[in-house]
Amino acid sequence: MTPLPGFADPAHPDRPERLHMESLGRGPLRVTFLPGLGGTTRYWTATPVAPVFRQAQTELVDLYGFGRSPRPWCRYTVERHVDALARTLEAGPPRVLVGHSLGAALALALAARYPDRVQALCLCSLPDFGSRSGAIEWFASQRGGWIYTNMLATALACLVTRRVAGRWLPYLVRNVPPEVARDLVLHNMASSTTSLWEVLYQHDVRGDAAALPPDLPVTCVHGLRDATAPPARVTELAARFPRWRHVTLDADHHPWLRDPGACHGIIDALCEAVRPEAVRAEAIA
Question: Cα separations (Å) of 152 from 9, 82, 196, 281?
Fold first, then answer.
């Protein structure tokens, strides 16, 4: 039997393949970056500040359904995304997991289900809507935001972006670097729309937050001008847990692109806080 595109093998057709991953640097600590909806590994390398840290191996991952990872025509649920991440980020020394937007929600979900694989979390622009109705209420208050909660409109926008406007995106989408804009076509309608609905609108990230080990260090980074992920909800969420730290920057939904130096420093501080444990783990191994 021929395997379905994007799946592991005929015996387990519902289990995703390993995801595309690139590595930078070397060291006992692993720092893994997950991009947001439509993002790829190039989201993290498109700034003058490289995502590289002292005594650390950086892992850049394309999410399931995006970039150079498998993109089958299926329903992209939280569990399907997490399964793909778990199969790619194999067991071993735990890692500092950094996620942006959709990637932040999935980093939180992965840590809740596989706490032994995560040493610390950095959640950039975490979308915390509470429910689909909460998302609708939030985007209704933003200019033109209704399109993000209308499935037909988002599906049509996805189709037009990939089939019609793809080559012009670096000129049309001016708020991100050209290489990031070019990669916005590297998905399909199923991965884009169902990831949006299943992971961000119909899944409550607070359940995953409550399931984390109480001693897991978590840093939330949010832009004060974020019109995509409600800043106030993340402020309130972080205040619930003693090991959570909340940092706000003068940025929109893309703190890493707007102030990479500050974000690098925040992640580096998180690495420093857990590095002794990582070094001991390597010595024992």
Answer: 32, 26, 13, 49
Q: Taking the CB of residue 153, how many other CB atoms lie within 10 A of it?
A: 13
| Successive 10-residue mean pLDDT values, the chain, 285 residues | 35 67 92 97 96 94 97 95 94 90 98 95 96 84 67 65 66 86 91 93 95 97 96 96 96 98 97 72 49
279 class by beta-carbon count within 10 Å (0-12 exposed, 13-18 middle, 19+ buried): middle
> Going by C-beta distance under 8 Å and a sequence separation of 6 or more, which residues neighbour residue 186?
38, 40, 62, 66, 67, 68
User: Is 123 exposed, middle or buried (CB count within 10 Å of its CB: 0-12, 13-18, 19+)?
Assistant: buried
CB neighbour class for 223 (10 Å; exposed up to 12, middle 13-18, buried from 19): buried
Tokens in use for 233? 């909800």
Residue 155: predicted pLDDT: 65
Q: How far apart are the first and last CA of the chain?
A: 40
pLDDT of residue 209: 97
| pTM of this structure | 0.89
State the DSSP H helix or E strand holding residue 241, giving kind and residue range, or none if neither: none
pLDDT at residue 249, rounded to an integer = 98
Give the CATH number of domain 7-130+203-284: 3.40.50.1820
Q: What integer pLDDT is reported at residue 14 of this predicted model?
A: 56
What is d(CA 226, CA 253) in angstroms, rounded to the nearest whole number? 5
- Contact yes or no for 219/270 (Cβ under 8 A): yes
Identify the three-state secondary structure at position 239: coil
Q: What pLDDT score does 18 carry? A: 87
Residue 219's identity, in one-letter code, is T
Domain chopping of the chain, boundaries: 7-130+203-284
